[in-house]
Amino acid sequence: MPKKNETKTLFTEKWFDVIEIDGKVGIHNKHMSVAVLPFTNDENGMVKEIGILHEPNPFREGGFCDTLITGTVEYEDDSLLLTAIRELEEEGGIAVPPTENARWIFLGTIYPYKDGDRMVPVFAVDVTGLEVKEPQGDGTEKEAMAKFSFEEVGRGIASDEALVLSSFLRLFNYMYAKSMNYV
Q1: What count of Cα atoms within 13 Å lies in the side-chain half-sphere of residue 129?
Q2: CB–CB of 122/110 below 8 Å?
Q3: Per-residue CA distances from 166 to 16, 42, 88 (Å)
Q4: Contact (CB, 8 A) for 73 and 34
Q5: CB 171, CB 107: distance < 8 Å
Q6: Entry pTM
Q7: What span, in angstroms and rounded, lies between the C-alpha atoms of 91 and 68?
Q8: Which of 24, 66, 80, 118 is the most buried (most CB within 10 A)?
Q9: Are 20 and 7 in contact (CB under 8 A)?
Q10: Closest CA relative to residue 109, chosen from 33, 16, 15
Q11: Nearest in space to 65 (alpha carbons), one of 181, 165, 161
């Protein structure tokens, strides 16, 4: 009889392993990524638009998905926030200096799917009034084909991407708590 929680590796590669635990197959990620939800506010301080990245994804119908800016933590990143700052500029074309910490909100971590151990730290950033330049990307074909844009909140939350929806709900919860003076 197999031991409880016995792990068997079915497939391995640079970024992840496919594993089996107690007869259930899942993904074990080897690298941590962060996600960034850029947003703008209207004149009343309400979220007006959210930043969406239209990027290639061969596993989705049409070969693209609309998701958040995401990026892998690299060796030279001193913190998860510095990874988020770098990715926002690379993929969104928006520079927010580390000295402007008040613009950033840590929304916590999200597990984007149930059959894996991928945990994604998520940051929201208020980019109201900041210049949006052409994203430079990281030199990969995937990022060269990606397109960043701001979408009205209603369009943004119509996404079928769990990371977009859960991040926006956490941002909404934070903004509500702030308006009620809970934070």
Answers
A1: 4
A2: yes
A3: 23, 22, 19
A4: yes
A5: yes
A6: 0.84
A7: 10
A8: 66
A9: yes
A10: 33
A11: 161
First to last CA, the chain: 52
- Residues forming beta bridges with residue 73, ordered by sequence position: none
Token representation of residue 82 = 């510095």
Rounded Cα distance between 26 and 147, Å, is: 30
Q: Given the structure tokens 């969104």, which residue do they identify?
A: 92
> Which DSSP string do the residues of the chain spell out, in sequence order?
-PPTT-EEEEEE-SSEEEEEETTEEEEEESS-EEEEEEEEE-TTS-EEEEEEEEEE-TTSGGGEEEE-EEEE--TT-SSHHHHHHHHHHHHH-----TT-GGGEEEEEEE---TTB---EEEEEEE-TT---------S-HHHHH-EEEEEEHHHHTT---HHHHHHHHHHHHHHHHHHTT--
Residue with tokens 């994203």: 135
* Nearest to 2, CA basis, from 20, 26, 25, 17: 20
Which of 67, 69, 50, 68 has its CA nearest to residue 151?
50
Rg, C-alpha atoms of the chain: 18
pLDDT tens sequence across 89-129: 999 999 998 789 899 999 999 987 776 677 899 999 999 99
What the block records as the tokens of 25 is 């197959």
Evaluate whether 109 touches 102 at the Cβ level (below 8 Å). Answer: no
Q: What is the pLDDT of residue 173?
A: 95
- What's the pLDDT score for residue 112? 79
